[in-house]
TrEMBL record:
SUPFAM superfamilies per the UniProt record, alphabetical: Dimeric alpha+beta barrel (SSF54909)
One Pfam family in the UniProt entry: AsnC_trans_reg
Every Transcription regulator AsnC/Lrp ligand binding domain range: 6-77
PANTHER family: HTH-TYPE TRANSCRIPTIONAL REGULATOR LYSM (PTHR43413:SF4), TRANSCRIPTIONAL REGULATOR, ASNC FAMILY (PTHR43413)
InterPro entries noted in UniProt: Dimeric_a/b-barrel (IPR011008), HTH-Siroheme_Decarb (IPR050684), Tscrpt_reg_AsnC/Lrp_C (IPR019887)
Signal peptide bounds: none
Protein known as: AsnC family transcriptional regulator
Amino acid sequence: MISAIVLINAEVDRIPEVAAAIAEIDGVSEVYSVTGDVDLIAMVRVQQHEQFADVIADRLNKVQGVLGTQTHIAFRTYSRHDLEAAFSLGLDDA
């Protein structure tokens, strides 16, 4: 699985609708409404690098109300959940 973080600028009066439309796109796992320099952050996860073009360029960027995006492709993913699963022996806590 390959992950990308997409920073999205949207029309301010359409942020909830833009977020909902982006969340419905296959390959988008989460959409966050955030404070700061951007309005939304979308997490995109695909199997092959080429699929980013389908999800981001061909669909996400064309959602009505999206003004612009910046995409950051992840080299590696680090999370507490992933690390715990990697070191789990499958034994129940006793």
